[in-house]
User: What shape does this take?
Amino acid sequence: MAGGVTQDPLARYRAKRDFAKSGEPQGQTARKGGRRLVVQRHFARREHFDLRLEIDGVLKSWAVTRGPSANPSDKRLAVRTEDHPLEYGSFEGAIPKGEYGAGVVELWEDATYEPLNGDPAQALAKGKLEFLTMGARMRGRWALIAMKKRDKAENWLLIKERDEFAESDDSLAERFDTSVASGRRREEIERGAPSRREAGQRETRAKRDTRQGARAPTPAFTPPQLCETSEQPPQGEDWLFEMKYDGYRLELATGAEGAKAYTRTGLDWTTRFPTLARAAFELPCKNALLDGEAVVFDARGLSDFTALVAALEARDQAPIEYCAFDLLFLDGQDLRDLPLRSRKEKLRKLLEGHSGAIRYAEEIRGGGASVFAQVTTAGAEGIVAKREDARYRSGRFEDWRKIKGDKREDVQIIGYRPSKVGESFASLLAARETPEGLRYVGSIGTGYGARTREKLAPLIAEANKTKPAVSAAAKLPKDAIYLEKPFSAEARFGGWTGEGLMRQARFLGVREDRARPRKSEPARNSKALTPVTHPDRVVYPADGITKGDIAAYYERIWRRIAPHLHERVVSLVRAPDTIDNLFFQRHPLPGMNGSVLKVDCDNQTYISLNGEAGLHAAAQFGAIEIHGWMARRDDLDHPDRLVFDLDPGDDVSFILVVQAAADLRDYLAALGLRTWPMVTGGKGVHLAAPLDRSLAWPETEAFAEGFARVVAQQQRKRFVATMSKERRKGRIFIDWLRNKKKATAILPWSLRARSGAPVAAPVSWKTLASLDTGSAFNIHSAPQLPNEWDAFDNARQSISRESRELIARVLAGGARRAL
Assistant: This one.
């Protein structure tokens, strides 16, 4: 303050320029609240890139000599320059010779950003600003870090964070030599050539920036509504009819944590469809969840699945578009209970003026027979009929129906017939999923070019000597070779025979968006498991996940969770109704049969699950979460594992939790303990160390507590070792209390009783470093994960006497060693 007048943040900017000559905007300080990110390539005396972030009504600016690099190993020098007005973010042109900054200015990036470490002005003042952007060129998480000030220059470093958008080289700046706004190159801007882009883009961007405001959380994956099959279109004016697209069903989610693309089974395919994710992030909303189909259109305007697969294999995003036909969430509101016509009206309005890769899937009201005839005559696959007054429900329901013109089928490839002419195979053997299980539906003999055979080679390489459990198995060829791991595919065929087999079937492509069916495992004798009662009861109301889905999940991942359950005393989190009403079950319930074992300890009776039947029984009793002791029932006095739970305060980002986990891993390794990480399905990360059971509870508990307290003492700004929520603000609680006798920790592969049905997923350190949330995997996607804890089950280690004594001495103040 000087003389009662606030200093003008644009004073330096204006003092350096003669606006009558330079053509640059004079501008003014705007109201706070925007989040615009701009990068301008400046062909001045020394070429550089100017990074500008909207903070406090101006564009805070840095000159980045070689431009942004998407390689996290590159630390680009960013020299702070004067603040610029917001209007400068749209400036592109040639500054005349003799003027300050003479040369061509090209708009290289124009997007929005989300701060990741609190208020951006405060973060800037503290010397570290972390942000997320999903621009056309800069994508993912970035950081600006201030260097120690040595002279008048204010030097910073621009660093790309390690995420799915990180690259292995520094080619980002040089790959793009045109304006992101006008499509012009340097020489075209210099001579004043007209823009190559439609003028409407600027209006769309302005509309987007106005509506986005403060972002809302990115919605989680929602299991999609699926279609029943119908032979004829339904009649009546209460039906809407849409084109049936032949592509990949995707949900696009956008919000404060960025944009995601999910397959129909919940797989995260953001890296497969980065252009669609970026287009979703640019939508004018606080957050949204769209349902639709990723497609490639042919010259006739029809979706072509084979062309889509080819585009993905070639990493060519240009022809891929997204046909959005439903809107589940918008601006923080759940729209699923609204009638379809209302959801589509909101979707149409959201996409108005949007010229990106997302288009609105048009519908026609009534006249289904006529619509079907026109569509199939034009060569399309068919239509989808939807009741206009129906709410959105996860699962397969009659108010959505698909009516196909040509015959296409999603099948499971269970084997092949060997070739007699030297080919890799003669035909593939297909089965179809039915309510009673897989049913053999015939062989697919055509559609295999050289590239297709090359892609199929690894999928059919592993044979299984056991005939798969399918109905109509008598029709399987006698010379069939069966696959160890069946896979999903799409086939076109001429019709059905009287025996239920496909006629004239042609292979169209592998369906990578569909989960592989579980391999038949005769030794498990799943038929011996009693079906759960009330399998259709919805347990996760917001997600449509049922009791039957939970039982099916645990049956599917049985072999993964088995080593962690074996003879372990457990506690269960049960939902007799829904996850809104939970019970923590430590002791046996009346009616629990022999598959749930009783374990006596200190005059109390606890429970242990006896193999797969015990896990199935737990699901029957409404169990969702499975928490385990650190000891097994055959030796309750000697723990077989040590677990540290990193529980962050509400204001601590997940990337800081990941960094903390890596640091604790290294500290424990220095003490002779190897650890494995697990994302908990919530905000935190567990570090687990297997033990050889040579130590008793008092020894392991003392070490766990001592280690946590030593780390918290030596790094007070990062960690605490007490449960206090107040002390946890801005820090991470190293929860060592899991290592007390009878205390429990969530077991690997357990579901969590939280919206979205996340899973406590054991991962590798490499995988952990790539994640941006502790709830990255759920009931749909977790079974697709590789088992990255193979070595955990066979590891044999103990906490050495030297390490235990060292921790005790440091804690007592008798040693000064820093971890």
